[in-house]
Amino acid sequence: MSFFRNYTDWLTGNYILNVAILAFLTAQLAKIVIELLVHKKISFSRIMGSGGMPSSHAATVVALATSVGGICGTGSPEFAIAVIFALVVMYDALNIRRAAGEQAKRINYLMQNWQHVNTPEAFERQLKELLGHTPFQVLVGALLGLAFGLLM
Questions:
Q1: 80 pLDDT exceeds 80?
Q2: Per-domain residue ranges for the chain?
């Protein structure tokens, strides 16, 4: 365990923050690998993009809560705050952001198929559709965050 603690201290000097950052970066890199395996293409835009598998939001906040619990204890106020924060972020990823992504899909369909309002001024660019997550994507992100929190 001390290897991971020493290894993560170099990034910011704050162990809990480092665990969360490393969980986020790992999830974002995993998106590139999964895109390559599933769609046979490399998409470096996925490194900072939202949505997709796994949920980097879930990985980050669960790693944060897990490492806070490990350092401060699961009975501490800090752990309670981190857990509630994680639940709110994951709820948002599952519901609000996913709904916004579904709306973007429908609007993009209208933009592509509406012949009467096909002017450049009306539809200059497509809306981003990949905003939220499926429950499975959030679960995998949460498990990734839990693994980081426990291992480090």
A1: yes
A2: 2-98+135-151
